[in-house]
Amino acid sequence: MTNRLLNILTGINRTSEPSSGSMILVNDLYGAMPEIHTTFLGRAPVDEAWKTAFDQLVTLSTTKRPHGPLFDPYIDELTREVGALIEETRPDAIHAQYVGFALSLAFARTAGSIPVIAIAHGPDVMMAERNAWAREGLNEVAAASAAIVAPTSALADRIDRLTGGQFTDRLAVIPWGIPLSDAQVRDQPATGTGPLSLVHAGRLDDNKSTITAIEALALTDHPHRLTVIGQGVLRDHLEQRAIELGLRDRLQFVPFLPRAELWTRLPNFDAFVFTTRDLEAFGLVLIEAQAHGLPVTYSDLPGAREILGSSGVPYAPGDPRSLAEVLDEMSQDPQRRKALSKAAFNNARRYDIATTAQQLRELTLRVGS
Q1: Which of 75-84, 186-195, 200-209, 318-327 has the lowest mean pLDDT?
Q2: Is the dihedral of CA 259, 263, 268, 272 positive or negative?
Q3: What is the pLDDT of residues 4-54, one digit of tens each?
Q4: Residue 255 exposed, middle or buried by CB count within 10 Å (0-12, 13-18, 19+)
Q5: Could you tell me the maximum CA-CA distance found in the chain, to the nearest angstrom?
Q6: Which CA distances in Å does 25 have to 247, 308, 356?
Q7: What secondary structure does DSSP assign to 196-217, as a single string?
């Protein structure tokens, strides 16, 4: 396998567009991986401008069905479609994104002698912790895989518990990354005291807990301003809560932004607020913010603590008062903000997508040898 182009089959069972962190990650990852040919399985509609990282993008035709009475027939049909694609593409290795989800199950059931590397993204692990059927799927894919990749040791530990320690020796931690060369740091970080211009970006759902930042804003001693960037099922609820708290003039909602546009805006803020309450596989947006020189305050979760360490300021997850205290302290200490900005930039240097890609390629070669 080492003497020729490495042929990889992978995919995510979603529309083929950069509408989520996992889609953006795989686009970066396979675009940065040297000497490979990638066939990516996705869903229509396809964003034609987005698929440039993949040598071939195949749209799956099997109709998606949620878990329920029709789920098993759906998996069977998807497995047949994937099996035919494996016969056609003859990959050297399969990268099964989202351990235990439908597409990874189809990969696991049709791979045969082709080595499978399962790649965890977070929602797959959360689902397996909450549902027996998802846990069964995760274990099936883990058993069929030569290696299981997690971006943090905290996530790897959760997978190890879910699989009863049966596959500990297959677990590998490969931190995720971003294309660092595209990030631009703010020329002159704000140095005065007073209200901060804050930004939060991500899905607006219960686990991302954007409500923590909004309610913290109402508890601060200083009138900080917050820009919330993203879409999700809680958008209307969050806007209503902001009105109830009298924050209409201090809070702005911005729809989901393509990453290029998000990155042009990040340097205009004083600090980034990260509010996930339960599980975050890695938190790429943390590194994106740090790469632009933003001080970061984050909910003190094991995964976030692992990638940030002392380069960010933790607060108690889901606790608005704890976050409010951190924001007020940060606003009154410009020297600390300056030090955090420098620490953020230096920490982000550890997470280049080229390093992630090289490590995943090396692992793929090892399991296939």
Answers
A1: 186-195
A2: positive
A3: 689 999 999 998 888 788 899 999 999 999 899 999 999 998 887 776 789
A4: exposed
A5: 64
A6: 34, 19, 10
A7: -EEEEES--STTTTHHHHHHHH
The residues, ordered by sequence, that sit 6+ positions from 133 with a Cβ below 8 Å of its Cβ are: 67
Q: Which residues pair with 272 in a beta bridge?
A: 199, 296
d(CA 335, CA 254): 30
Separation CA 76–CA 88 (nearest Å) = 19
Average pLDDT over residues 150-178: 97
Which residue from 179, 159, 163 is spatially nearest to 25, judged by alpha carbons?
A: 179
Which structural domains are found in the chain, ordered by start?
A: 6-177+352-368 (3.40.50.2000), 180-348 (3.40.50.2000)
Q: Where would I find the H helices in 111-232? A: 123-130, 132-144, 153-162, 210-217
Question: To 5 degrees, how large is the angle CA 362–CA 113–CA 139?
Answer: 80
Taking only the tens place, the pLDDT of each residue in 70-126 is 999 999 999 999 999 999 999 999 999 999 999 999 999 999 999 999 999 999 999
Write phi, then psi, for 47 (nearest 5 degrees). -80, 105
Q: How far apart are CA 70 and CA 54, in angstroms?
A: 32
Give me the phi and psi of 281, to 5 degrees please.
-60, -45
Between CA 122 and CA 281 the distance in angstroms is 5
pTM score? 0.92
Q: What is the pLDDT of residue 190?
A: 60
| CA 269, chain centre distance (Å) | 22
218 CA to centre of own chain: 29
Q: Residue 175: is the preceding peptide bond cis (ω within 30°)?
A: no
Question: Are 30 and 54 within 8 A, CB to CB?
Answer: yes
Q: Indicate the pairing of strand 271-274 with strand 296-299.
A: parallel
SS3 for 92?
A: coil
DSSP run (H or E) holding 22:
helix 21-32
